[in-house]
Queue: 4 jobs
Job 1
Amino acid sequence: MKNLLTIVGERIRYLRKNRGLTQEQLGELVGLPQSYMGGIERGEKNISLETLERIVNALNVKPEEVIFRTNDKADFEKDKLIDIISVLLKGRELDEVEIVEKLVKDVLKAFDERDKRSPME
């Protein structure tokens, strides 16, 4: 089983990458050098809660999104995709987000209706 430093480092890496940031860019936002950020992501640095808070704020995520992880690969991939969608929507106007929400609801409704049909149809 991976230790907490490795888990947190991996989560920081994928959240950083989902936001299109380099280690250097995240380091600038947090006030740490790129080499130190690399050590954090590899699980080599034992960071303080203060540093973790700065990273969480720079990534614009909740602390639990960095600390907790699932052991289920499918859930991890699903969370990763949901995070990517969230990042894509953050910079959009409200009316655009509302349109995307309606589209998602329509697609999910179509999936649900497809699943309700019997296999014989």
Job 2
Amino acid sequence: MANKISKISESEWEVMKLLWKSNPLSSEDIIHGLSPKHSWSAQTIKTFITRLSNKGVISYKKEGRLYYYFPLFSKEEYIKYENNSFLKRVYDGALDMLLTNFLAEKELSVEELEQLENILKDKKQNKSSD
């Protein structure tokens, strides 16, 4: 993963979801993919594409008169960046505080609790074997 990933807006995230699903895409492909879900104009969507390119989150290849856009980071890499950014910004990096607040506020199903237990057990076993 590159050293610096730029923060993206919720609207830009919509463009990225399309590009993570299928790429490369032309601006027309992106416009057609987003138009049914949002009331954004073609120019607004092109502005999002330009912003993402300027932020270094996407790039393009030119074929004739068309530009085809593709992501420079996987969805997983970006989610990891966002998670770490949120943790640092809101909880000063204190994961235990995040988990404590999350668990106190959210009603979890038995299946979700079991899944969390399994994740914690796996983490603990991996630490023990280090």
Job 3
Amino acid sequence: MDIYRPQVDISGDDKQYEIVLDAPGLSEEDLAIEVKDDVLTIKGEKEEKHEQGDKQFYRVERSYGSFQRTLSLPVDATTDGIKAKLTDGVLRLRIPRSQPQQSNVKHIAISSS
């Protein structure tokens, strides 16, 4: 079993971060997503299945194996609201961003006397 490393894109706007990971041939059962101490870990395993019968393979180019991608989350990431969706071999994670707190700014007048 080989180790393979799926490609990841990370983007975001002022409301959320988005992580897109290529996961062709993987199902929800093949993937695990965890968050611990502001570190996001995505694990996956794709098992090699040998077909029984009279087939003789002369070449196999599909990747099999396991992977783990570990990403540090930004300070403003809200881990409670993470959503994950797997569609057509692409895993998308949406991580909400916390809104910066409005600071109460008080202007102080300056006198010359």
Job 4
Amino acid sequence: MHGGTYARKLLWRWHPNPLRRHDDIVEAWIVLSVWILVLVGGPVAALVTARAADDVFDRQRAERQPVRAVVLNNAPPSTPAMAGTIARRGAAVRWTASDGSPRIGRTLVNTGLKAGSTVTVWQDRHGRLTTAPPSPAEAAIESGFLGVMAAAGLAGPVFGTGAAARWRLDRRRADAWGREWDQVGPRWSHKTG
């Protein structure tokens, strides 16, 4: 019984009622539309975004490959402020591209490396230096985060638009009540006694 009472209160705008106004029906449709867009559109936006991000990360893992490179100049040592952290500095490196041609470029290496040290760098399919692709676990976390942000990015404007429309309806109802009071108020304002 309690559930039926709650449902009746929740759906009062949909029940025939002599006190129900046209604005109440419009507001009910606005609320329903907002919730449908959020509850259906949000997960769809999240899934589409997460899937697109997964595809990008999969393509990065397929296109990028690690290669061994030789550091050409000494990497500056870490400063005392960097103590206890893994610091990286830019250094020139030489590597052989997948087509066999020698390449030289700059990348981040651990501080303190001497010239002639070997490091692993990542190259794209054209032999250019690039960042390492995200691991499957990192990609899953980032895809999930991007999906949640896409759902929130949809929900925010939808709720905002719904709230603005309901605010406009409230203003219209308040103006209507003011006009009605202007007509009825003078009849009630006489003093008794």
